[in-house]
Amino acid sequence: MGCYEVSLGDTIGVGTPGTVVPMLEAVMSVVPVEKLAVHFHDTYGQSLSNILISLQMGVSVVDSSVAGLGGCPYAKGASGNAATEDVMYMLNGLGIKTGVDLGKVMAAGVHLQAPGAPVWVQGSDGSEQGYRERLEALRQD
C-alpha cells in the first residue's frame, strides 16, 4: 500500500453512524481494517457514536485530543475534536483497557487552560458540564 495507515477524517463533524457505516464498508472493500484509523469532530455531538460504530466494525485506531481542543480551519464555528476524556470513559465502560490514566488526562486538560478561566466541554448527553467539576467528581470516585 505504500503507507502504514489510512486515516478517515470527518473534520467538520457532520458524520453520523448512518453515514459512517457505508463509508467504512466502502473503504474496507479495498483497504484492510487493520490499516484504518478514524478522526471525528464533535460539531453535532456524534463523535462518540461514530467512534463506537467504527470500533464495532473493527477499527482500532482513533484520534482524539485532550479536552476536545482543536478544530478545523475550513469549518468556522465547528466544534473541536473528540475529547480524549470522553473516548477513554466510553472505552473503560466497554471494558477496553487503554493503559492510560483518565484522571491524569483530565488534569492535563485543566493545566492547558488559562488559570481560573471557565472550561466547558460537551457531555455525552449533549449538556455542557464544567470540566473542573468532572475532574473533581472523578477524583472523588
Automatic annotation (TrEMBL):
GO terms for biological process: ketone body biosynthetic process; L-leucine catabolic process. Pathway: Metabolic intermediate metabolism; (S)-3-hydroxy-3-methylglutaryl-CoA degradation; acetoacetate from (S)-3-hydroxy-3-methylglutaryl-CoA: step 1/1. Keywords: Lyase, Metal-binding. Signal peptide: none annotated. InterPro entries: Aldolase_TIM, HMG_CoA_lyase_AS, HMGL, PYR_CT. It comes from the Eukaryota. The keyword Metal-binding applies. It is an enzyme of class 4 (lyase). Residues 1-106 form the Pyruvate carboxyltransferase domain. It holds the Pfam family HMGL-like. The keyword Cell membrane does not apply. Its EC number is 4.1.3.4. It catalyses: (3S)-3-hydroxy-3-methylglutaryl-CoA = acetoacetate + acetyl-CoA. Gene3D superfamilies: Aldolase class I (3.20.20.70). One of its GO terms (molecular function) is hydroxymethylglutaryl-CoA lyase activity. Belongs to the HMG-CoA lyase family. This is hydroxymethylglutaryl-CoA lyase.
